[in-house]
Design brief:
Rossmann fold; alpha/beta; Glyco_trans_1
């Protein structure tokens, strides 16, 4: 049976954007490739690089007008597009802030609704569930969230702290309105078991959840290129912020190079507020020549970067919802050593080591992996990604859509 799917995209197909943008594009392309009708509603006006995947149609949502808030404008645009959305069998949003409008669509029409939860934006206006940027958060509320949002609003860029604070308060409004209609959504797509469990703690109906992982980016499905010989090249890719634990990178490298005969180098790919701190720490530790900070690297160049390194190092503190970088490392046969946060252990499997603790534990994990042979973990990494190929993942989405349609039909019967 052919499915008519309306898909709410976080940007637009072909957008360089975030990992979520690429994941959304892969889903619509793979569903359309299986003969289904897919209309992609683009949250951002498609750029010159936009291209509709074969079998799909692009539509741009009008997000103009007051208030000048990305999430609030998107909410209004979805409500304005209600009649169009109601014409689909299923509407799947890959944007968590669509929850209020998606809940209204479910209440007012027979269209089946699906929401992807790929982080914490449906319960946290900061999207990270880190209270005051210091500790995991297990509850929310207007006063608590407002205080946290205001206290942690950065002011070091061109927008300033006041703008950031107002933006977060706008997202707090969406969180509060979304929670009131969370039970109306027909099905939820959670990227990991950790995401499912977390939202369950916040009262979401987990009996309607399906855990479906990210699709492997085919650009990272390539042979490994390093020789796994000293000097070993470690790699970090991601934002250079405190919650990613990047302040631990240089201490890990220092510990690895304390022992005679051990020779490790580190490449840091990404931008963020702690780049200068990483470079200063490396110089102070006498490791300036062993640390290379590249800044931002285009997505099309990243597969080669991963493949040429011996080990991917992730020192993060926050509970990773999924983390595409782990799939990217595994796809290139690059073993992973990471802190045990969020869903990391479930993704990595035998393709590396997951450790409890800080710099000492991470350094020990790298040494253990080297002693066992990086090659063995590299082979396991390549086998691990079979679970994330389209032939394994896409049928799970189609089954999720069918369950959403069944519940929507039950809603219609009860209402008649």
């Amino acid at each position: 049976m052919t499915l008519d799917l309306g898909f709410l995209h976080p940007t637009y197909p072909a957008s360089e954007g975030t990992g979520a943008s690429h994941s959304a594009t892969r889903i619509v392309a793979e569903v359309a490739a299986r003969g289904h009708d897919v209309t992609v509603y683009c949250r951002e006006a498609p750029g010159d690089d936009a291209a509709a995947p074969a079998g799909t149609t692009l539509r741009s949502l009008d997000r103009s007008g007051y208030p000048y808030h990305t999430g609030q404008q998107f909410d209004r645009a979805l409500r304005d597009a209600r009649d169009d959305l109601a014409g689909h069998d299923v509407v799947h949003s890959y944007v968590m802030n669509a929850l209020p409008a998606l809940g209204a669509l479910a209440r007012e029409t027979d269209t089946a609704t699906v929401l992807t939860l790929n982080a914490y934006g449906a319960v946290c206006p900061k999207n990270d569930l880190r209270y005051m940027d210091r500790e995991p958060c297990a509850s929310n509320g207007p006063a608590k969230c407002a205080a946290c949002a205001l206290a942690t609003s950065p002011g070091h860029d061109e927008y300033g702290a006041a703008y950031r604070a107002a933006s977060r308060l706008g997202y707090l409004d969406l969180v509060r309105r979304g929670e009131r209609v969370a039970d109306d959504i027909d099905a939820y797509h959670a990227l990991s078991g950790h995401i499912e469990a977390t939202y369950g703690e916040f009262g979401f109906p987990t009996e309607r959840f399906a855990v479906v992982p990210n699709l492997l980016d085919e650009r990272f499905d390539r042979p490994h290129e390093s020789g796994f010989e000293p000097p070993y090249d470690l790699l970090y890719v991601g934002s250079l912020d405190e919650h990613k634990g990047v302040d631990r990178l240089v201490p890990v490298l220092a510990r690895l190079n304390e022992r005679a005969g051990a020779d490790y180098r580190l490449t840091v790919v990404g931008d963020g507020g702690l780049r200068s701190d990483i470079e200063a720490r490396a110089a102070e530790a006498g490791l300036g020549d062993a640390v290379t900070c590249t800044g931002w690297v285009a997505n099309e160049d990243l597969p080669g970067v991963f493949a040429r390194h011996d080990c991917f190092l992730y020192p993060g503190r926050w509970d990773e919802p999924f983390g595409r970088v782990f799939l990217e490392a595994l796809g290139t046969g690059t073993p992973v050593v990471a802190t045990d946060v969020g869903s990391v252990a479930d993704i990595v499997g035998a393709g590396g080591r997951v450790v409890d603790g800080g710099a000492d534990a991470l350094a020990a994990g790298v040494r253990e992996l080297a002693a066992d042979g990086f090659e063995r973990a590299s082979r396991a990494a390549r086998e691990r990604v079979d679970d994330y190929r389209p032939e394994a993942v896409v049928p799970q989405f189609l089954a999720l859509y069918e369950r959403a349609r069944e519940r929507a039909a039950e809603r219609a019967t009860e209402a008649s």
